[in-house]
Amino acid sequence: MKVQVLTDIDSISSTDWQRLAGDDSPFLSQAYLHGLESSGCVGGDSGWHAYHLQFDDDVGVQGIIPAYVKTHSWGEFVFDWGWAEAYEQHGLEYYPKLVCTTPFTPVSGNKVHSHAFTHGEVLGTLSHLCEAQSLNSWHMLFCPKIEQLPPDVFERHTVQFHWFNRDYVNFDDFLSRFTARKRKNTRKERQSIVDQGLAVVQLRGADIGDKELEFFFECYQQPYLKRGHTPHLNKAFFEHLFTQMPDNVLLVLASHQQRYVASALFMFDCTTLYGRYWGCVEEFNNLHFELCYYQGIEFCIANDIASFNPGAQGEHKIKRGFEPVITYSYHWVKEPGFRGAIKDFCRQECDDLQQYFTSCQQALPFNTNAN
Question: How far apart are CA 95 and CA 307, in angstroms?
C-alpha cells in the first residue's frame, strides 16, 4: 500500500473521507479541519503544518490519517516539554515531530480513518515514515486504546472528567442521585445565578448572529490575553464554524441588566456534547459552573445526548457529577538512547494516574447507598 503525504486537507476527496470516517465527532470532520487550515490557525508561523497521510492501493483510497508536523508542543494537551528539554540538554533536536490529532482539541476519537486496518496496524508505518522524512518522533493523541504495541511504542494516559446521561428526566432527577449535602451545594450554586440577576440563553448555530459572534470572540480571547498569550484560534475560524457547521454548535450566553457578560461554546453530535471555550467580561459567583457545566447537562438531558465531555483537566468537575475517564495516547521517538528513559517515565506515569483515577472515583458526589 502506497502512502501519500498531503499538505492540504482539501487534497483529500470528500467522498473518500465520508466513506472511511468511523466517527461522527465534529472535530474529526473534514469541514472542521478545513476551517483550521483556511483560517490560518494551522500553517504559516503557527508551528502546525498539515501532513495528512493517505493510504492507497490498486483499488483506491484505503485509509486517511489527519496529521501535522510540529515545531513546538503547544496545543496538544499531552505534554512532552520535559522530553524536548532533555534532548536539548544532550545537544539533540527534538523537533520536528509528527502528531496525529486534531489541533488544540483534547477529544478522544478515531485518528485513523480506514476499514482496511486498525490504529495498531499503522504504528510501524508511522515509524518508517519518520525515519525516511527526518521527523524525530510521532505521537498519536487521544485515540482508542491499542492492545498490542511494538516494544518501541509507549502508551500514555491522561484523566478527564465526563458526565454520563443515565436516562435522567430532568436536572432534578440527576441531582436526586447525589448525597444530600452535595445536592444542596449544587442547588445553592444554581440559585446564586438567579439571585445575582443573571439570565442565561442557549443558541444553536443557526441562531447565532454577528452580535453574538463578536461578543463570544471577545470572551474567548480574555483568558489568553490575561496570561500574555496569543489565542490559538482566530475570528475567521469561528465564522467558518458557525456558518459551515451550525448543526454542531451550541453557544450559551449570560446577560446582566440586558448586557452580555459571559459565554461558553460547545460542539455536539448525536451522542456527545463537547465543552470548548469559556470567557467573561465581568465576574459573577458560580457563573463559570452554570455556563460550562450545568447548562451543558441540561442540554444533554433535553436532547437525549449520552455523554458530555467538558474539556481537559479540572478536579472541580468531580463534585458536580463528572466522572473520571482515562484517555490514551501513543508515542515513538527515533533516538534509541532515549527510549528506555521515556518508556520508564510512561510506565510510572500510567501507574500514578491509575491511583489518581481511583481517588477521583471515590470523591464523586453520588449516593452509593441509593437504589
Answer: 36
Where do the structural domains in the chain lie, given as residue ranges?
Answer: 2-157+325-362, 166-305
Domains 2-157+325-362 and 166-305 share a fold: yes
CATH number of 2-157+325-362: 3.40.630
In CATH terms, the superfamily for domain 166-305 is Gcn5-related N-acetyltransferase (GNAT) (3.40.630.30)
pLDDT per residue as tens digits for the range 100-116 = 999 999 999 999 999 99
pLDDT in tens, 309-360: 999 888 999 999 999 999 999 999 999 999 999 999 999 999 999 999 999 9
Would you say the pTM of this structure is higher than 0.90?
A: yes
